[in-house]
Amino acid sequence: MQKERAQWSSHISFIIATVGSAVGLGNIWRFPYIMGKNGGAVFLLTYLLLIAFICVIPLCCELAIGKKYKKDTVSAFYEINPKFKWFGWLCIITVLMIPCFYFVVGGWILNYIWIFLAHHIPPDFAQYFSSYSSEIIMPCVLTLLFLFMTAIFPYRGVNSGIEKANNIMMPLFALMLVLLAVFALTLPGAKNGLEFMFKPDFSQFNKSMILIALGQALFTLSIGMGAIITYGSYMKENTNIFKSAYTLIFFDTLIAVTAGVVIFPVVFSFGVEPTAGATLVFISLPQIFTKLPYPELFGVIFFVLLFFAAITSGISIMETAIASFIQNFHISRKKATVIVSIIIALICIPSTLSFGLLSGVKLFDKTIFDLLDFTTSNLLLPFNTLLICLISGWFINSFTREITENLILKNVFSILLKFIVPFILLLVLIYGLK
Ligand code: PFF
Q1: In CATH, what number is assigned to the domain containing residue 300?
Q2: 4 belongs to a structural domain
Q3: 222 lines ligand 1 (CB under 6 A)
Q4: Other CB atoms within 10 A of residue 240 CB
């Protein structure tokens, strides 16, 4: 007999868990450095417009598919039309590829927590980071440890694992972020940092910025992989899709902007270039911590915060695959968690090693890590999102009724869903392929 589908115990728990999925490395690690590289305030403005008017459409679609079918991603697409089952599996393949860079970074975070906790702070983080990430044993062990710590929660189930983890970690995360923001605002470079973030210099605007902002917006909202379909499938019947989507967007953006409010004042106060890129958080920032009165304290708070952000997203990544494995292979949650963990471990190891032992293994001039990051973020994500919009708009009968009852909104939504958003996503895809 089919067991009754799990349900979030309250609307707040649903919102916290979904925000937990959305808020992750994308907000704290990726957003500030992408914004730094792409002109600050103009990028932020572009990003806000895109997320509020474009990305909200696929976000609503995923929530509505979850709510309507109450199934895992693969079964939901099968139910829409059996010929879309392959697409459900493509979403699962995509979500399984994300840990190849996400959990590797998770392992680095664990290492940084350890070095700050144990007072093993290296004098030069640039040198330290490059020698650590090219080691063989420790990065692999820590990637696997991060995987293990993440897997515990879906293993325990939706309510006693996933929901509890989010309900505890997300408020702690928010508290730490606020503490760091208050501190950052007292620094001498705060004014310059805030100006960089909020005072647009329109000469910096260019069209590639739009596409980068859109890719980032999809990634940060966990769209295009079935994660939101899965979390949406546990929501209560009377949940309002539009309201939930905008609540999620509000918190996700608030947290990304607050992360910027922490990082840019610090960066400007210590004369580091905001354009430092991916290493901003692992080299520039920890180097700055060593110059503060209590480096260990700042180091631990910042990297534990990053850890909470990463693990709550990691949980949703795993749950998306686990839910589909349970349903489609008729296995228990525990068995599905073990199998998904083994698959992730097998694909994470070569990616972890691509900074050292396997650094010479390249395809299209990219290491395994870069290739997986590029393929998922720049190609699969926009491609899957495009298909989610097309399937929802063209293949589900009166789909907009799931979203809203308001006639004008329904029509606007329908035009955006069927024509405008797919067209924009197609542009992103073509640009990603260049
Ligand atoms: N939204 C997460 C972030 O911004 O870090 C990343 C993510 C989570 C991607 C969950 C995919 C997913 F299924």
Answers
A1: 1.10.4160.10
A2: no
A3: yes
A4: 13
Q: Which residue has the tokens 């600050």?
A: 40
Q: Identity (one letter) of the amino acid at 265?
A: P
Query: 19 CA to middle of ligand 1, Å?
Result: 10
> Is the minimum distance from the CB of 400 to ligand 1 under 6 angstroms?
no
Please report, rounded to a whole number, the percentage of residues in the chain having pLDDT higher than 70.
98
- Whether the pLDDT of residue 221 is over 50: the answer is yes
pTM of the model: 0.93
Mutate to test the pocket of ligand 1, among 317, 373, 384 (most ligand atoms within 8 A of CB): 317
Number of domains in the chain: 1
In the numeric block, which tokens belong to residue 59?
Answer: 């976000």
DSSP state of 9: S
What are 49's two structure tokens? 């417009």
pLDDT digits (tens, 9 = 90+) for 150-204: 999 999 999 999 999 999 999 999 999 999 999 999 988 899 989 988 888 888 8
- Cα 106 to ligand 1 centroid, rounded to whole Å: 13
Tokens 């902002």 locate to 213
Distance 313 CA to ligand 1 centre (A): 5
Counting ligand 1 atoms within 8 A of each CB, the residue from 102, 254, 313 with the most, and so the one to mutate, is 313
Which of 185-189, 338-342, 360-364, 423-427 is predicted least confidently?
A: 360-364
* Helix or strand (DSSP H, E) at 362: strand 362-363
Distance between CA atoms of 212 and 208, rounded to whole angstroms? 6
pLDDT value, residue 432: 67
Ligand 1 center–CA 108 separation, angstroms: 17
Q: What is the distance between the alpha carbons of residues 53 and 421, in angstroms, rounded to a whole number?
A: 9
Answer whether residue 219 is part of any domain: yes
Which tokens in the block code for residue 396? Answer: 């589900």
Q: What is the pLDDT of residues 9-65, one digit of tens each?
A: 999 999 999 999 999 999 998 898 888 888 889 999 999 999 999 999 999 999 999
Residue 132 domain-assigned (yes or no): yes
Contact indicator for 230, 316 with CB cutoff of 8 Å: yes
Domain range enclosing 407: 11-433
Residue 276: its pLDDT value, please?
66
In a domain, 22, yes or no: yes
24 Cα: distance to centroid of ligand 1 (angstroms): 6
